[in-house]
Structure formats: C-alpha cells, structure tokens
Specification:
The protein has helices at about 35-55, 70-80, 85-100, 115-130, 205-215, 230-245, 275-285, 285-295, 305-330, 340-360, 365-385, 390-405, 420-435, 440-450, and strands at about 1-5, 10-15, 20-25, 60-65, 135, 140-145, 180-185, 200-205, 220-225, 250-255, 260, 265, 300-305, 455-460, 460-465. It is of the alpha/beta class. Bound molecules: adenosine monophosphate and zinc ion.
C-alpha cells in the first residue's frame, strides 16, 4: 500500500511499526461553533483511510482530539456569559451528531485537551530539563526552536526563511528568538487556567496534540494526519516537541488533505465563506456530502458547488438504486448453481474489486475507486435480472455493499424501530409463547434480529439491546 508522506514528498510503501496494527492520530476541530464542511473533509477522508486499513485486516487505533481550550472558545463563552466548558461541550455534542450523519466512525479515543493538562506539564518539564524550552519572566514557556536540528523537515522550510506562523498567538514576554513558540502561557482575566510550575495559565495549541498522541498511541506512531494548513507551524512544532522529548521519530507517515474551497478560496470561519455541515444536512442527506468529498483525491483541492453536489447526489442514487434492485431480486432468485455466464460475470466482478483495491492502495485514490464501483454498478444492471441465481446476485450485492462500506457509504438503511414498537413486539411475543404459538414467537424474534434488536430472556423478564 502506498501512502504519500509529506515528510519525503513521495509516495512510500506503508510498513506498520507493529505488524497488523496502525496507530493513527488526526488533529480534530476546535469546538466553538458548528463544524463547517471544510472541517468535514479531513474527518471523511481519514475515516475512509481507517476503514480501508480495517478492510485489509489491520487493527486501527484511531485517535482524534477535540481542542476544547482556545481563544475563540473563551471569546464565545464571555459573549454568552457562561463557562468555556459549556461552549466546548455543546459543540462537541453537535460535532458528534454531524459525524454520525456523515457516517464517520467514532475514534477509538476522542481525547479532550483540558483532560490532559498534567501530561502537557510533564512534557514541558522534560523539554526544559533537556534545554529545549525556557521560561520567560512573565511565566510564558517557549520552545527553543533553533536547538531542534530537524526543524523544518516536514514543511521543507529552512530556518532562515521562516517567519512565525500566522496561527501563532503573539504574546508579550521575552522570546530568545523570533522562531520560538509558546508551550505554556499565563492566564488572562476571565480565562480558564491551571496551576503549573511556571505560572497559572494554559497550554499552547501544539503541545496538546504531542501529548494526546503520546498518551493514547505511544511515543512512535504510524500516521499523523490533518488538513494541509496544519503542516506549518502546527505539525512542524509537534515534531519538534515530541522528538526532543521522546528521543525517537514521532510519526512515520504524515498525511495532509488539500482544502475544500468555495469560489476557489479556502472555506474558513475567518473568511466567513463557509457552510456548516448542519446547513448542508437541511438540503441533502449527509451521505451525499461524504460521496462528494470522496469523488476527488484527498490531496487535490476540491471546489464546493451546487452543481457538484447535484452530480454527487445523482451518482450516489445510481449506486443505491442498483444495490436496492439486487436486494429485490434476491427473494425470488433461483437456488441452483451459477450458470457459466454468471461465472464469467463474477470473474469480471473480481477484476473490478482488484481495480478498486489498486486505486485505494495508490495513496487512497477514492476517485478511481468510485469509478470502479460505477463499472460494477453497470455490470450488475446489465447482467443480472429475474432469471439470475441467488448465488450470483448475492455475490455481486455483497461485493457492492462491502466496497461502499469501505468508503463509508451506507447501501442499506436499517429501518430504525422505535422503543415503543420494540416493546409492543416483545409483548406480542410473550403472549404468543403463552398461547404456545411458538412459530409466531420465533418469527417476532427474527424480525427484531434483522433490525439489530437482540433479546435476552432473564428472570426479570425479557431484556433487549440494540446491536
Ligand atoms: P480547525 O478547527 O480550524 O483547527 O480545523 C480542524 C481541521 O479541519 C484541521 O485538520 C484543518 O486543517 C481542517 N480544515 C479547516 N478548513 C478546511 C478546509 N477549508 N478544507 C479542508 N480542511 C480544512
Ligand atoms: Zn493537532
């Protein structure tokens, strides 16, 4: 499998640190508002990377943080007259709803920066001890950038050309050097703060990710990912912190998605040219948004437009209609052996699966993978019908289901049963048992099972859970 590594600017063969396992960290959003669809791009792209690794049999430990202490969160909290945790908790919950709508799997761990302060203090202490950081008179702790010999290796900048990144918050204090960046800063009035050996204050943004990655994944990880605006200074600074503190290479592969643009400009909150995921969900099923994002390679800029969303909607509908038709063919399909022609079709299906995999193995080329799915749809539409055998229909349908699932595209919407409906069915089943109508009782159990409802007979009665 080839992965484009920002470190080497080349596609490299993926070799995991530990066989069969992937340790992956994706920088998550700062939670002071609803996420916009630009923020959704890394979520969808790296969730798809994760899903492909899982499809290949890897056990993926996927960590993605929420930045829940930040100037913008504090500003909003002051505006609303509430604690900043009220703001961050609200938007974390909203973000999780959007993720669910986009079928982005929950991370193995979603750490919160505010819960990891002790780890940050420990790492900063280590950096000071090793001479990589120093405290200024006002209590600010800075990283001594020039001491880290590899500084600039990710962004391919040399020290002389560097200027402090635009995301860096300018602070009052005594920096030894322009390039030094903040690890810990003193509190201002009304801001959340923590005790530390240097002053009451809060961590800088970069140290948060170094520490959360270390805590949940260890000193060395396979993949670190995020949007390309994070390469410098955020990821460059993470490398400087982690490698100086831990004495080993931090991440082997650095993956960055290109921007989602609108009118060919980056969609961002500061420019005000954004749509939230929630706004889009009022017009489209969020599956369409996901499909739209994956229709381009993740390293290509993608321009958001109503036309492209309409095209994605139609493309997705074509796939779902084909899968649906196969589902409808199944109940009446013949039970016998596959015909010779069907075996040929299955051979063609296998070739398309190989084409799909080759696209995904080539640095997750989802655009080409989707093209292979469309070919498969065409093959299914033209070669399977009411006369086809169950085995052939099932084979093609399962293949389509699986390939779509790797992209996070849901082909079969499970009809959700309401709690009240479930309980009514359970009651009917109890009555059927009393009446010794075991056929009906079993039938109800099966109906519930197909909807993902599992029943357990206990001494206190029937208990149920959603699978
Ligand atoms: P932020 O909340 O600004 O830290 O962003 C969270 C994630 O979204 C980061 O990985 C950013 O790089 C990414 N991101 C923000 N805006 C865009 C955009 N317009 N296109 C693609 N990724 C973006
Ligand atoms: Zn980060």
């Amino acid at each position: 499998m080839k992965v484009f590594n920002t470190l080497s600017k080349k596609k490299e063969e993926f070799i995991p640190l530990e066989q069969g396992k992937v340790r992956m960290y994706v920088c998550g959003p700062t939670v002071y508002n609803f996420i916009h669809i630009g923020n959704a791009r890394p979520m969808i792209v790296f969730d798809t990377v994760r899903r492909y690794f899982e499809y290949k049999g890897y056990d993926v430990n996927y960590v993605s943080n929420f930045t829940d202490v930040d100037d913008k969160i504090i500003k909003k909290a002051i505006e609303e007259g509430v604690d900043s945790s009220v703001i961050s908790e609200r938007y974390i919950a909203e973000c999780k709803k959007d993720m669910e709508g986009m079928n982005v799997k929950a991370a193995t761990t979603h750490p919160l920066a505010t819960q990891e302060i002790h780890g940050m203090i420990a790492m900063i202490e280590k950096l000071i001890e090793k001479g990589y950081a120093y405290r200024a008179d006002d209590g600010t702790v800075y990283y001594r950038t020039r001491k880290f010999k590899d500084y600039g290796k990710l962004s391919h900048k040399n020290l002389e050309d560097l200027q402090a990144g635009h995301r860096e918050i300018k602070v009052v204090g005594e920096k030894e050097d322009e390039l030094d960046f903040v690890l810990w800063k003193p509190k201002k009035d009304g801001e959340p703060y923590w005790e530390s050996p240097w002053c009451e204050g809060r961590p800088g943004w970069h140290i948060e990710c170094s520490v959360m990655a270390k805590h949940y994944l260890g000193d060395e990880i396979d993949i670190h990912a995020g949007g390309e605006d994070l390469i410098f200074p955020h990821h460059e600074n993470e490398i400087a912190q982690s490698e100086a503190a831990n004495d080993c290479e931090f991440a082997k592969y650095w993956m960055h998605n290109a921007f989602l643009n609108i009118d060919n400009r980056k969609m961002s909150k500061s420019l005000g040219n954004f749509f939230t995921v929630r706004e889009i969900s009022e017009k489209y099923d969020l599956q369409v948004l996901r499909f739209f994002m994956l229709s381009a390679h993740y390293r290509s800029p993608l321009n958001f437009s109503a036309e492209l969303m309409e095209a994605s909607k139609n493309g997705l509908a074509r796939i779902l209609t084909a899968v649906n038709r196969l589902g409808e063919l199944l109940p009446a399909a013949a039970n016998g052996e596959m015909t010779a022609e069907e075996k040929v079709v299955c051979g063609q299906v296998k070739e398309l699966v190989e084409k799909y995999e080759a696209a995904m193995e080539d640095d997750f080329n989802t655009a080409d993978a989707i093209a292979a799915i469309f070919e498969l749809v065409k093959l299914a539409n033209t070669s399977l019908d009411e006369k086809s055998t169950k085995e052939a229909v099932e084979y093609v349908k399962n293949t389509l289901d699986t390939l779509c699932d790797v992209l996070g595209i849901i082909t079969e919407k499970k009809e959700e049963l309401l709690d009240a409906d479930i309980e009514a069915l359970i009651e009917e089943r109890q009555q059927a048992r009393k009446d010794k109508n075991f056929a009906r009782a079993d039938e109800i159990r099966d109906i519930l099972a197909t909807k993902g409802i599992l029943l357990k007979d206990t001494r206190e009665g029937v208990k149920w859970t959603r699978a």
